[in-house]
Amino acid sequence: MDAEADGLVEVSEDGDPSRRRRVHGMLKLYYGLNEEGKAEEEQESLDPCDINGPHFDPEHYLNKLRRECSLAELMDQETCMVKQIRSLDSDMQTLVYENYNKFISATGVHTLLRKLQFLFELPARLNKCLELQAYAQAVNSHRRARCVLRQYSHLPSFKGIQDDCHAIMDKLAQELRQKFRDGGSSAKDLAQCVELLLQLDEPAEELCDKFLSHARSRLESDLQGLEAEIRPYPSAPAVKDVPARRSTSIAGAGSPADLSPKTSALPSPTSNTDILEFIDRGCNEFVSSLCLVIASYQELFINHAQAGELASKNIPQMANGKLHAFVDDLAARYFSLVERRIQEEKGVGDNSLLVRALDRFHRRLQAVAKLLPGSPVPNKGIEIVIRAATERVKQYLAALQSFYMDSLTDVRQALATPRLSVAGASVAGGGALHGGPASGRDAPTSLPELLSSLSASILNQIKSVLASVHLFTAKDITFSNKPYFKGEFCSQGVRESLVVNFIKFVCQSSRQFCESAGDKGGSTPPVLLLLLSRLCLDYETSTISYILTLTDEQFLVQHHSPVTPVTTLCEEAREAAQKLLNHYVKVQGLIISQMLRKSVETRDWVNTIEPRNVRAVMKRVVEDTTSIDVQVGLLYEEGVRKAHSSDSSKRTFSVYSSSRQQARYAASYTPSAPMDTNLLSNIHKLFSERIDIFSSVEFNKVSVMTGIIKISLKTFLECVRLRTFGRYGLQQIQVDCHYLQMYLWRFVSDENLVHFLLDEIVCSSAHRCLDPAPMEQSVIEVICERG
């Protein structure tokens, strides 16, 4: 194109010399030059109508033409002006075309001169930037000239400039390194410093290490501040102001607040800041700084290095590995401090602060998950949240267990009070009931009310604990609806670990009262065994189902993982109730049996005097049996009895005085017929119904009393079989057995059982009597009625 333009210029110049002179004349005229090329000094025209003058006024010029010229002259003037404009435009285009190469050459030379000027001024410019600490501008200026200086470094002038620039940039790099090492600058300045050093070809790995080392020092100071907030547990004198354990019994408790867990009275052994303030400080200081470090590091060494001349150096892979190791190490230390602080939260009074703290902790870790995908840090944080919630559930379970055991202690204290009103009778400390006037006005409560208060207080405590634990599943808690938390926490944490384990604890701890007692009943009051058996039976019939249904509804438990069926817990509760009731029967039977054993073993039955009264121990047996009957009737239903005969109270006498019994006694009296007597007795036993003394009892009063009386009379029988009797000894046994028959038949399900055992006692006494002479039935009746 330039050749074509040159050709056109040459043709124009050779073809029309007059035109060439005219164009040159126009240029001289335009620039105000004379023939010698010097500017002509002409006086400026002040006429506003001079179209070539500097003061030309178009409006004034047109007005003058309209006044002085006719229409034809105006038209001619217009035509002339148009021709001049076109001619001028043509001359200007021709001028440009003719001088195009010269314009281009002049522009390239000007640019080159500017570059050369920039190069020659570069050392001074760099020194000025270094003086003003305009490091970024200095690096950019040097990068612009670096390639040119390297290319022409063989030229002495350029070599000198290059050496000067290298010396200045080395000094600048040293200042940047010093600034980087000092660490007093802000994160933004630090990032700029690293970026400039990378542009100066500093080793990327070394810069990564220095950057992370500087960031570590700042983050470690945050961790040290958090660690200072954690203090060891206070010593024993530090908690001397803890309120003393309540001494009031459950029987006198007025509200569920009186039955709160004892552990809630203990202060949480923490520092001056609570758990929420601690987590807030950790999130606002450490986690925020860590996120800023991650973002800055990624921008400098990973994102920025993936483009430009750094992309081929594999910097992102190296930098990413160092970043993950750095974050994992510091996060592990932070998590350790968080877990230590969470472990200090031992009090179970208020759960809201812990839940809010865990929620804030979980929220802030999500920022780390977004900044650093693939990092194990967020998952480890989630594990801390899950462990904290699980540990909280364990603390609540321990509080419930402690509450239950303390409640049983209060029940024992209530039972040990001198007089506990039981519907017309009073409970003594040993658990036996003694007849006497009711003192309900002064007594704190009755036995059924004691059971109701115990059951209600336990149930209220469970509800209170469930309400506290439910805070973990609130809708505004971020981790509550996460699949890794809610399903497992609700089913295995709350339902199984808390509720189910507490129900099992109630059953197991209740059964332990049966295992700790010795042959004489141990230190456990029998009435406590009776109370616990009824409590476990109520759990089996209704309470367990209610508690688990309440839990499932409140926590929306999804039974994806295996859970304990309600039937299994009910069976365990019924088993505990059965064992407790059986043990109650055994203990009460052994108490009465002990009285009967002592009464038989401490008496000389051969040389005793003729009976005139019923022995006092038999009256005590009847009194205690009556008291036990009242006691059991307060907690258990009556039960089913067989029909009684009309003369049940006198049946012993009629049996003993029957012709068959007289024949048995008469035969036994004759010394020549002992074999016949034993034979008749053994034949009689063969056809008698076998009595199982220690069989399980049913959950009703009649079955319980039958079991106690069987144990008592069987003991009486075995003691009699080990003694030798005289005439009056046999008669005393007759009187005692008739007295027992008068009262005991009404307590059992089948009166024939009492008749059979008492008949065996009298027969055994007769077989072991040296002078068997039975007392007349009428005399026995008189003595018993008088007794």
UniProtKB/TrEMBL annotation:
Region span, Disordered: 238-268
Record has Transport as a keyword: yes
InterPro entries: Cullin_repeat-like_dom_sf, EXOC2/Sec5_N_dom, Vps51
SUPFAM superfamilies in the record: Cullin repeat-like (SSF74788)
Sorted UniProt keywords: Coiled coil, Endosome, Golgi apparatus, Lipid transport, Protein transport, Transport
Pfam families in alphabetical order: Sec5 (PF15469), VPS51_Exo84_N (PF08700)
GO cellular component, one term: membrane
One example of a Gene Ontology biological process annotation: Golgi organization
The keyword Glycosyltransferase is assigned to this record: no
Residue ranges of domain Exocyst complex component EXOC2/Sec5 N-terminal in the record: 111-224
Subcellular location: Golgi apparatus, trans-Golgi network; Recycling endosome
Domain of life: Eukaryota
UniProt family annotation: Belongs to the VPS51 family.
Entry function: Involved in retrograde transport from early and late endosomes to the late Golgi. The GARP complex is required for the maintenance of protein retrieval from endosomes to the TGN, acid hydrolase sorting, lysosome function, endosomal cholesterol traffic and autophagy. Acts as component of the EARP complex that is involved in endocytic recycling.
Assembly and binders: Component of the Golgi-associated retrograde protein (GARP) complex. Component of the endosome-associated retrograde protein (EARP) complex.
UniProt-recorded name of the protein: Vacuolar protein sorting-associated protein 51 homolog
Native source species: Scophthalmus maximus
Gene that this sequence comes from: vps51
